[in-house]
Amino acid sequence: xxxxxxxIAIETxxxxxxxxxIAWSLPDGRIKHTLIQPDSDWLDxxxxxxxxxxxxxxxxxxVSPLDVIRELETDHFSETLYTAGVNDDEASLSRLxxxxxxxxxxxxxxxxxxxxxxxxxxxxxxxxxxxGEMGFEPMRPEQEVEVMxxxxxxxxxxx
Length: 159
Hints:
globular
């Protein structure tokens, strides 16, 4: 089996809030996913949104931003990862790295850029159809990454 491109998705609170959960794929198609413990500086704003999670849930089940960075570095140092939402995911990723004053060591690119044979919008429609077929929610990063992987395999089979 050929190596698959790396896909990444980050779940945030409302209005581009805190990074709450992250998922990325590995070259063999496996998916890593975790909740993220919010840094104390992120919680200074009274209007902070934790989405569907409680602070206790994120603290107990999540991992520190530094652990997320270390794991991502182990899996994808100096690579391009593909995402359905470049701007939102870049902002969230930057927030993780900013806690430690580190520049991100991965580059994000739009997932649809992998498919030059598709016209604008075709990839987005195919992605939406795949979410419907799978019964998944686009807001869950592990499901987003799985959809991008499956869609990639489907689009490469049809070429």
